[in-house]
């Protein structure tokens, strides 16, 4: 896997600029991961965002600095990884929804108890389980171990649509995916 490392500076702009540029980038955690094929954008002006009501102990990492992880538990069950964007004090992040597994498939299969590559990382909770992402990674910089993010090599065809599993601001077209990928959490 080659590609320029994405640094904190890459994330120091609006999530609405960053999110679609993450499609095709490579995300690794301790060498395990793959190509990002689906993300959703959230900002603090968005009623569906964790940052909408202001900072709390749980959401502090979403308020920066950019280029860090915001990890939270969804419905008390699944961990979710967000890549923090914008300037310090502004809650913006891209939720990583799905990966195409390319590195460490044996570790992912063991963690998920599944064989099929398609099922390993096709949802935010699944990919966190496959990559062993938990709250212990919350607030850590994305350009230092255990994280490694590599820029995409070419600009892929990107599908755009409404986000999934939310009840507010459902009409915002802030879900981005690799067009035609079989590794998406859900088709566009």
Question: What topology emerges from the helices and strands here?
Answer:
Layout (H helix, E strand, L loop, with lengths): L14 H8 L3 E4 L2 E12 L25 E6 L3 E7 L7 E12 L1 H8 L4 H4 L3 H8 L15 E4 L7 E4 L13 E4 L10
Antiparallel strand pairs: 1-2, 1-6, 2-5, 2-8, 3-4, 4-5, 7-8
Commentary on this structure:
The chain is α+β, with helices and mostly antiparallel strands and 188 residues long. The chain is 15% helix and 28% strand. The protein has helices at 15-22, 105-112, 117-120, 124-131, and strands at 26-29, 32-43, 69-74, 78-84, 92-103, 147-150, 158-161, 175-178. Strands 1, 2, 3, 4, 5, 6, 7 and 8 form an eight-stranded antiparallel β-sheet that branches. Helix 2 crosses helix 4 (124-131).
Shape: globular
Q: What is the end-to-end distance?
A: 27 Å
Order of helices and strands: HEEEEEHHHEEE
Put simply, the count of helices is 4
Nearest-angstrom radius of gyration? Answer: 15 Å
Question: Residue ranges: pLDDT <50 for 5 or more in a row?
Answer: none
Q: Keywords for this structure?
A:
188 residues; alpha+beta; globular; single chain; 4 helices
Short précis:
The protein has 188 residues and is α+β, with helices and mostly antiparallel strands. Helix content is 15%, strand content 28%.
